[in-house]
Amino acid sequence: MTETETDRPVISGRLMRSVGHELRNRLGVMKNSTYYLGMKLQDQDEKIRKHIKLFQDEINTMDKIITDLMDFAWVKRTVLADADLNAILRESMAAASLPSDVDVSLELSDDLPPVRVDVDQMQRVLSNVLQLAGQALGQGHRLTVRTRRNGGYIEATLDNSTSSPPASDPQAVFDPLQLTMSRGIGLAMAVSRKLVEGQGGEISVESGEGGFRYVLRLPVGGGA
Amino acid sequence: MAEVLLVCDDDLGMRETLFDILSDAGFEVRLAQDGRDAVSQVQDHRPNVVLMDIKMPVMNGVEAFKAIKARQPDLPVIMMTAYALDEMITEAISQGATEIVPKPLDLARLLELVNGAAKQGMREGE
Predict the structure, then answer these.
(1) HSE of A181 in the Cβ direction (CA atoms, 13 Å)?
(2) A130 to each of A95, A144, A181, B32, B105, how far by Cα in Å?
(3) What is the model's pLDDT at position B125?
(4) Average pLDDT of every residue of chain B
(5) What pLDDT, on a 0 to 100 scale, did the predictor assign at position A114?
């Protein structure tokens, strides 16, 4: 069979999945090994523990890059279910590594209907948005997270008070290979948009309260 | 007596690292390199828990899982995957896999799961 131009994206997608699988297996072995060393050397010099932790952090970063590449190259099956957006936000905020000196405020509406989303994918999107929204924040900065109903959508906004734009053109953060984050290859936000749109939602960056606002609009669930 | 854990993965590095971690956690660990080997070892060694990769040559994890469940329906089987093979994961869930964990593994979480499954396996084997 001769490869045609139309075959190429399909072959590239399969190739990327295959390479991703193999790299993840290799990272898996490295992660197991560093875990074992961490157990055995936990009473050793602080620098040894620091270097083991560095290995582990780098492995996690590489795994995220592979995940972004695979998600970008391949349309993943979306499993939609009714879910509590406030609960997903709280979990994502708890897991996010925001600077400790940032003033974080949650103003979540308590009478929201459920959203219709893929919960795993939405947690990945929020993790990416929180990483981007949080990376320019420091002492004296504020991050305000709000939810509200807006027509057939539930809207979540993340306002950060830093005046540093995430890119010269804020909408460009969703373009592939835009290096808006300190780690990665510039696919996290492109993947986030793809995942949100795959669930019938929208994601955008707007000017906010003295800074920038990340807005997620997700379809109301519950048959509403 | 230590609980017996069968680890099945076609990757030598994965088998060796999991052997060290799980042995140190107190399990008697047996190793299998593909699904067919795992089915045979389940018959020979009667493990309390099986930890098995999904994508393997000779006999993949889902096929092996079905063969194991046909012989020992109550044996807890935890599946591992580095590959988001939707159809294989869906099939493993529908066939009753105890849990499906992504690679690279979260080892602290895996140890919790394996300990929980071992207790379940012991109770059901009584």
Answers:
(1) 24
(2) 10, 11, 11, 42, 24
(3) 52
(4) 86
(5) 92
Distance CA(A49)–CA(A38), nearest Å, equals 7
B49 min Cα distance to partner chain A (Å): 19
**Contact at 8 Å (CB) between A101 and A138?**
yes
Residue A158 in 3-state DSSP?
A: strand
B20 touches chain A (CB under 8 A): yes
Size of interface A-B (CB pairs under 8 A): 55
User: From A16, which residue of chain B is nearest by alpha-carbon distance?
Assistant: B83
Half-sphere exposure of B28 (CA within 13 A, CB side): 8
Average pLDDT over chain A reads 82
Chain A residues at the B interface, defined by Cβ less than 8 Å, are: 17, 20-21, 24-33, 35-36, 39, 59-60, 63, 70, 76-77
Distance from CA of B125 to the nearest CA of A (A): 30
Residue of B nearest to A71 (CA): B84
Count of Cβ atoms closer than 10 Å to residue A197 Cβ = 11
CA distance A71 to A56: 23
Q: What is the mean pLDDT of residues A67-91?
A: 83
pLDDT in tens, A148-188: 998 889 999 888 776 566 666 777 778 776 666 666 667 78
Q: Which whole number is the average pLDDT over A34-58?
A: 90
Q: Specify whether the CB–CB gap between A62 and A28 falls below 8 A.
A: no
CB contact under 8 A, B105 and A28: yes
Choice among A125-129, A190-194, B77-81, B117-121 with the minimum mean pLDDT: B117-121
Cβ proximity of A130 and A93 under 8 Å:
yes
Give ∠ CA B35-B39-B42 in degrees, rounded to 5.
130
State residue A69 phi and psi, 5-degree precision: -60, -45
**Mode of pairing for the β-strands spanning A153-160 and A212-219:** antiparallel
